[in-house]
Amino acid sequence: MIKKIILSFGKLENKTRRVLSKYPILYALIGGVGVVLFWRGVWHIADDMNVGSVLSLIIGFVILLLTGILVSEFIGKQLIITGLVGEKKITEKEEQEIETEEGQLRNLQKTLNKLEEKLDHIDDHFEPKT
């Protein structure tokens, strides 16, 4: 039962992303409202539980540290990766290097989009009839 619900939400999410990706400004607006409302709810729950600011900071820090989100969120994955592989900073790269990387990223995105379409087609084809 729970697995069915999760699968249904997954399919709904895929369809929603597919539609909203055609309208990036609307997508950003809806996403922004969702994020603000989510954090507003978290804030109010913490207030209702009388969690003080120092305790909030400590609990938040521990949660972010334990989940591995602390470093990736505040430093950024790209910054860490470029440091590990010894890449130049974006300001040090030549224009041609940046254009080449942008072209490679566009090609990768096209390939990913094609794969996603194929997977969606396969998913639609093999959906169980209810």
3D architecture notes:
There is one protein chain. With 130 residues, the chain is an all-alpha fold. It folds into 3 domains: 1-50; 52-87, no CATH class; 90-130. 81% of the residues lie in helices and 0% in strands. The chain has helices at 2-20, 24-48, 53-67, 69-74, 77-85, 95-125. The chain is extended, with a radius of gyration of 21 Å. The mean pLDDT is 82.
What is this entry, summarized?
The chain has helices spanning 2-20, 24-48, 53-67, 69-74, 77-85, 95-125. It is mainly α and 130 residues long.
Element pattern in H and E: HHHHHH
Class inferred from helices and paired strands: mainly alpha
Rg is 21 Å
For the record, the count of structural domains works out to: 3
Blueprint (SSEs and pairs):
Elements: H1 2-20, H2 24-48, H3 53-67, H4 69-74, H5 77-85, H6 95-125
Task: Note the main attributes of this structure.
single chain, 130 residues, mainly alpha, 3 domains, 0% strand, extended
